[in-house]
Specification:
α5 packs antiparallel against α6 and α6 runs antiparallel to α7. It is elongated, with a radius of gyration of 58 Å. The longest helix has 51 residues. The protein starts with a helix and ends with a strand. It has a five-stranded mixed beta sheet, with no helix packed on it. A five-stranded mixed beta sheet has the order 67-69-70-72-71. β39 and β40 form a beta hairpin. The protein has nine helices and 72 strands. With 953 residues, it is α+β, with helices and mostly antiparallel strands.
Length: 953
C-alpha cells in the first residue's frame, strides 16, 4: 500500500471510527459529581489503580466511589496542579509553577523547596525514570535529595551550543542543540559528542520532551514525535499524518501508563508498540473538546477537558455501537430479509447491513403496532394505529383499515395465517380476515389479547389471564397438569418443535410443551417483554436488562445478565434479536449493537482498608501498638477501587485473626469490634482475588501481663495449699476429737456400769443371801442368788452394746427391782407401765441409761422412808422415734438424803456426761430433768423424766 492510499484508508477509518465513537455513550464527571473544577489538566493512574485528576483547583484521588480532594489546606503550595507522575513506590508526584513541589503518600502531602532559597519552579519538561522525578524547566534540572530539590544542570539560551536535556543514563549525560534548534548532539559523561541528529521542524515548534524510561527519550510536537533508544542510539521518527491520518494534534504527551507507553493528544489516545507505531488507537469525538486521554488498567478510557470535566468510556462500551440514540424504539424483528425497528412517532426503520446503521423505511407518525412477514402470501405487513401497509416485491401499498367513526386501525395489530385466512388481533378480540380483500369476515370477542402464535397447527393466544387456544371458533384455557397458570402473558416464542416460551408481566418466563410448565431459572418476578431464541440460546428482554440462557444437558441454564454495566443505554429492554455476530438490544433510549460473545468484566482493581481506628487512634504501620482499655472500640472502613458505572452492593470477605478462623462475607463497608483482649491481631479482607491486611497489637495492662497472672496463680496455689492444710488439720482434729469422745463415752459407760453395780448393792445383796442362809431359808436365798446372778450376767452382756431395745431395758429394770424388793422384805413396791402404742421390740434406747436413776430412787428415796415405798416407771409414746420415760418414787427425796458419792465419780455426774456425749454424737436427742413430787410434804418424793428421740441416719 503506497503512502497516498494508506493516508486515504486511514482518513476513511478515522471518519468511520469518529462517527462510531460519536454514537457511543460517555459518562461525564464534573463539579456536580464532586470535582473541584471542570478544568482538567491531566489524569493518571497509580500502581494500586487509583485515578489522580489534576485540576486548577486541587488534586483529586478517585476510587470509583468517592473523590478525595487535596488543596493548599492539605499542604499543596498551590491548587493549580497541571502535571502528575505516579511512581512504582506508591508515591504520586505533583508539579506546578510553585516554590514547593513534592509528592502524596498514604494521603499525606509532602512539599519540598529548592536548595536555592526562594526559587520558583516551572517544570514544563519534567521526566520520570522509575521512582525518580527530574524537575526540568526551560533551562534548569533538579532532583530531590535530602528533602531539597538539588540543581543538576543549568544552561543559557542563546549559546551556539547549549544543553537542553539532562539524561539519567550510565553513559549519556545530556543532549545539546544549536542556536537554530535544528540538530541534537548526544553527550557522554566526559561532555563529548558521541552522536548527532537532524532535528529540523521538531525543536522549533511548541513541543514537549523528556525521558520516559531508563533507555528511552522522546520529543513531540503537534505534527510528529521522535523517540531515541539511549542504549542503541537509534532514533525513531513518526508523524501523525502517517500514524493517525491527522495533520496535527495539540497537547500531545507521551507517558508510561501501567507499564505501557501511551500517547495522547487532542482527538486520540493510543499505545506505542515495539517499533513505536501507534496501535489500539481510540479517536475521541470532536464535540468532547478533549486534549488528553488515558487508557486505564481495565482498558477503559478517561478523557480530560478544559471546560466539561471528565468523560469516561468503559471498555464494554468501546465495542458497542449505539444507533437511534435518544429515540424510543418499541420493537425490533426480522421481517422477511429485513431487520425492522419500530421507532416511536417516526415509523419503521430498516437496518443497513453494510453500514450497520438504521435508516427510515416506512414513515409513520402514529403509534406502531407490529411488523410481520406472512410466508404463505409472500407479503410484509406494517401495522400502526391508523394504517396497515404491505410490501411485496419492494412495492409499498396502503391497505384501507380505518373505521368510519374514529378513523383508527381496528382490524389488525398483529397478523397470523391459519387455515387459509389471516387472523388479526384487535382491541376486543380477533378478526378473521379475507387475505385477498383484507376484509373482516368474522369477529371473535376475547378481551386482553397480547399476542398470537401458530404452533404445531394450534392457534395459541397470549392473554392477560393466561394461555388460551382458539379452536372451533371458541377460546378455551390451556390447563397444565403440574400447576395452575393464569399470569398475564406479554409474548410467546417458539423454542423448538415441542416447546414454547411464555413471557409474563412480572412473573418471569416459562417453558411449556402444552402439557406441563416450568419456570425459566432466575427469571422469577421479572417483567419479560419479549425473547429471542437461536441455536439453543435464549435471550430475554426484560425491565432489568437482557438475560442469556444456554441449553446444557437438555436444560436451559442462566449464563449472564447484560445491563447498563455492560453498556446498554437502559436496563428497560423492549426486545432483542441476534444478527450474524451481533446482539441488537432495543430500548427507550435507542438501540445498542453488542458482540454476541460479550463477556462480563469486573472493574474491581483492589479492596483495601481505608481507615483503621482503635479508640479513635489511627492504626498505621508506624502506630500499631496500643494499650488495652475496657470496652475498647475497633473500627475499620473498607473501600474498593471499582470504576463500574453502576455499582451494586459491593461484598467482600473478612476475618480478624486469631478470633476468626473462617471468612465472613458482608456488604457493609464498616467493621466494628468491641472489647478485644490483649493480643496480636491481623485483619484480612478479600474480594475477587484481591487481598489486603493490617496488623496491630493490643498490649495488656500491668495486671494483665504474664508475670502478674503467674504471681496470682502462684498466690492462689499457696492459699489453696494453706486452706487445704487447715482443713486437713481440722479434719484430723475432728477425727482425733471423735476418737477421744468415743473413748470418753466408753469410759463413762464403764463408770456407769460401776456406778450401777456399786459396792452397796453388791454388799447388800450378799448380806441378804447370807441372812436367808442363816435363817435356814434356803428357798429364798436360792431365789435371791439366782436373780442376782442373772442380773449381773445381763449387766455384763449389755455393757458391750451401744443401744438396746426398749423391751430389753424394761426387762432389765424389772429384774433389778425384783431383787431390791426381796432385799427390802416387802417394804418396797414398784409398778412398770408401758404405753400400748409403743413398739418395744423395735424402739431403741441407749444401753443402761435408766438403771442408775432407778437405783437412786430405791436407795436414796424409799430406803430412808419409814413406811413402805413405791417406785413407778412409765413408758409413754409421743411420736414416731420419740418417747418419754418417767421414774417416780414417793420416798423422802434427795433433799432429805445424805449425799453419797463414790471416790471416783457420782452416778448423777456420770449420767450428765453421758447424756452430753450421746447428744453430741447426733444419733440421739435426749432431754432429762428431775423435780420433787410433793414439795410441801415430809416425804417429798422425786420424779425424773427422760424424753428420748432416735435420730434418722
Amino acid at each position: 500500500m503506497n503512502r497516498i492510499a494508506k493516508t486515504k484508508y486511514l482518513l476513511y477509518a478515522f471518519l468511520f471510527l469518529n462517527a462510531f465513537a460519536y454514537a457511543q455513550q460517555f459518562t461525564n464527571y464534573s463539579t456536580k459529581d464532586g470535582l473541584p473544577s471542570n478544568h482538567i489538566y491531566k489524569i493518571a493512574q497509580d500502581e494500586k489503580g487509583f485515578l489522580w485528576i489534576a485540576t486548577d483547583k486541587g488534586l483529586v484521588k478517585y476510587n470509583g466511589n468517592t473523590m478525595k480532594i487535596f488543596t493548599t489546606k492539605d499542604g499543596l503550595a498551590t491548587n493549580d496542579v497541571w502535571e502528575v507522575f505516579p511512581t512504582p513506590d506508591g508515591k504520586l508526584w505533583y508539579l506546578s509553577k510553585s516554590s514547593k513541589l513534592g509528592y502524596i503518600e498514604n494521603d499525606r502531602v509532602y512539599a519540598f523547596e529548592s536548595e536555592q532559597k526562594g526559587e520558583i519552579f516551572n517544570p514544563i519538561f519534567s521526566s520520570q525514570v522509575g521512582n525518580t522525578i527530574f524537575l526540568t524547566s526551560s533551562n534548569t534540572f533538579h532532583v530531590l535529595k535530602d528533602e531539597r530539590w538539588k540543581l543538576l544542570m543549568k544552561y543559557r539560551l542563546g549559546d551556539s551550543i547549549a544543553a537542553n536535556s539532562f539524561i539519567n543514563h550510565p553513559t549519556i549525560a545530556s543532549f545539546k542543540t544549536t542556536e537554530l534548534l535544528d540538530s541534537v548532539f548526544v553527550q557522554d559523561k566526559n561532555n563529548k559528542t558521541i552522536e548527532s541528529y537532524d532535528f529540523k521542524n521538531v525543536l522549533n515548534r511548541i513541543h514537549k520532551r523528556g525521558q520516559i524510561t531508563d533507555s528511552l527519550f522522546y520529543w513531540v510536537n503537534d505534527k510528529q514525535y521522535s523517540i531515541l533508544n539511549l542504549n542503541t542510539l537509534k532514533l525513531y521518527n513518526r508523524n501523525f499524518k502517517d500514524e493517525l491520518a491527522l495533520e496535527q494534534s495539540k497537547h500531545v504527551r507521551i507517558n508510561i501508563v501501567n507499564n505501557k507507553i501511551q500517547i495522547s493528544g487532542n482527538g486520540f489516545v493510543g499505545v506505542l508498540d515495539a517499533d513505536f507505531h501507534i496501535k489500539n488507537t481510540y479517536y475521541i469525538p470532536e464535540h468532547l473538546k478533549a486534549h488528553f486521554a488515558l487508557i486505564d488498567k481495565t482498558g477503559s478510557i478517561w478523557i480530560s477537558t478544559f471546560t466539561d470535566g471528565i468523560y469516561y468510556l468503559p471498555i464494554e462500551k468501546q465495542n458497542i455501537k449505539y444507533c437511534l440514540t435518544g429515540e424510543k424504539v418499541n420493537n425490533i424483528k426480522k421481517v422477511n430479509d429485513k431487520i425492522i425497528a419500530n421507532v416511536f412517532n417516526k415509523g419503521f426503520y430498516k437496518l443497513n447491513q453494510s453500514k450497520n446503521e438504521f435508516s427510515p423505511f416506512i414513515d409513520e407518525d402514529e403509534y406502531l403496532f407490529n411488523a410481520t412477514y406472512i410466508d404463505e402470501l409472500d407479503t410484509e405487513f406494517y401495522m400502526s394505529s391508523r394504517h396497515v401497509k404491505t410490501v411485496k416485491e419492494n412495492i409499498v401499498k396502503d391497505v384501507h383499515v380505518q373505521d368510519t367513526v374514529y378513523f383508527m386501525n381496528d382490524k389488525a395489530r398483529q397478523l397470523v395465517f391459519y387455515n387459509d385466512y389471516l387472523f388479526g388481533q384487535f382491541s376486543l378480540g380477533i378478526n378473521k380476515i379475507n387475505p385477498n380483500k383484507f376484509s373482516v369476515e368474522v369477529e371473535y370477542l376475547q378481551s386482553g389479547i397480547n399476542e398470537l402464535l401458530i404452533f404445531n397447527d394450534k392457534f395459541l393466544v397470549a392473554t392477560s389471564s393466561g394461555l388460551k387456544e382458539f379452536k372451533n371458533n371458541v377460546f378455551s384455557s390451556i390447563l397444565f397438569n403440574n400447576q395452575e397458570f393464569n399470569q398475564s402473558i406479554l409474548s410467546i416464542n417458539k423454542v423448538s418443535e415441542t416447546e414454547i416460551l411464555l413471557n409474563t408481566d412480572g412473573f418471569g418466563s416459562y417453558l411449556t410443551d402444552l402439557e406441563a410448565i416450568k419456570q425459566l431459572p432466575k427469571s422469577e418476578f421479572l417483567i419479560v417483554n419479549n425473547a429471542y431464541i437461536e441455536n439453543n440460546t435464549i435471550w430475554l428482554a426484560t425491565e432489568s436488562g437482557v438475560l442469556k440462557y444456554t441449553k446444557i444437558n437438555d436444560e436451559f441454564v442462566f449464563q449472564m445478565l447484560i445491563d447498563k454495566v455492560s453498556g446498554l443505554p437502559s436496563n428497560s429492554v423492549n426486545n432483542v434479536i441476534v444478527n450474524q455476530e451481533n446482539l441488537m438490544v432495543v430500548t427507550n433510549n435507542g438501540i445498542a449493537i453488542l458482540p454476541i460473545n460479550i463477556k462480563q468484566r469486573s472493574q474491581l482493581l483492589d479492596v483495601y482498608i481505608e481507615n483503621a481506628l482503635f479508640n479513635s487512634q489511627p492504626i498505621t504501620a508506624s502506630n500499631s501498638v496500643f494499650k488495652y482499655e475496657d470496652n475498647g472500640n475497633l473500627n475499620f472502613k473498607i473501600s474498593n477501587i471499582n470504576f463500574a458505572e453502576t455499582q451494586k452492593n459491593f461484598s467482600f470477605n473478612y476475618k480478624l485473626e486469631p478470633i476468626h478462623k473462617d471468612w465472613t462475607q458482608t456488604s457493609t463497608n464498616n467493621l466494628n469490634f468491641n472489647d478485644l483482649q490483649p493480643e496480636s491481631y491481623t485483619l484480612f479482607v478479600e474480594a475477587q482475588g484481591f487481598t489486603n491486611q493490617i496488623s496491630f497489637i493490643i498490649q495488656p495492662l500491668w495486671w494483665q501481663k504474664f508475670w502478674f497472672k503467674a504471681s496470682m496463680v502462684l498466690l492462689a496455689i499457696i492459699i489453696i495449699v494453706f486452706i487445704s492444710r487447715h482443713f486437713v488439720k481440722r479434719s484430723q482434729f475432728q477425727k482425733n476429737q471423735k476418737i477421744f469422745e468415743d473413748k470418753r463415752l466408753s469410759e463413762l459407760q464403764l463408770k456407769a456400769l460401776r456406778s450401777q453395780m456399786n459396792p452397796h448393792f453388791v454388799f447388800n445383796s450378799l448380806s441378804a443371801i447370807q441372812y436367808y442362809i442363816g435363817e435356814n431359808d434356803f428357798e429364798k436365798s436360792e431365789l435371791y442368788l439366782v436373780k442376782f446372778s442373772k442380773l449381773i450376767r445381763q449387766f455384763f452382756e449389755l455393757s458391750k452394746e451401744n443401744e438396746i431395745s426398749l423391751e430389753t431395758e424394761v426387762s432389765l429394770l424389772q429384774n433389778y427391782l425384783e431383787i431390791e424388793k426381796l432385799r427390802f422384805k416387802e417394804k418396797l413396791d414398784f409398778t412398770i407401765h408401758v404405753d400400748s402404742d409403743l413398739d418395744t421390740k423395735n424402739t431403741k434406747i441407749p444401753t443402761m441409761l435408766l438403771q442408775p436413776i432407778v437405783e437412786n430412787a430405791v436407795n436414796h428415796g424409799v430406803f430412808n422412808k419409814l413406811e413402805n415405798g413405791l417406785v413407778t416407771l412409765n413408758f409413754i409414746d409421743i411420736e414416731q422415734r420419740t418417747f418419754k420415760v418417767e421414774i417416780i418414787d414417793d420416798g423422802v427425796g434427795f433433799a432429805n438424803t445424805n449425799n453419797r458419792q463414790s471416790e471416783d465419780v457420782k452416778s448423777s455426774n456420770v449420767l450428765h456426761d453421758r447424756l452430753h456425749f450421746l447428744n453430741y454424737s447426733e444419733k440421739w436427742e435426749i432431754d432429762y430433768k428431775t423435780e420433787e413430787l410433793n414439795p410441801n410434804s415430809v416425804d417429798k418424793g422425786n420424779k425424773s423424766v427422760f424424753i428420748i428421740t432416735k435420730k434418722q441416719k
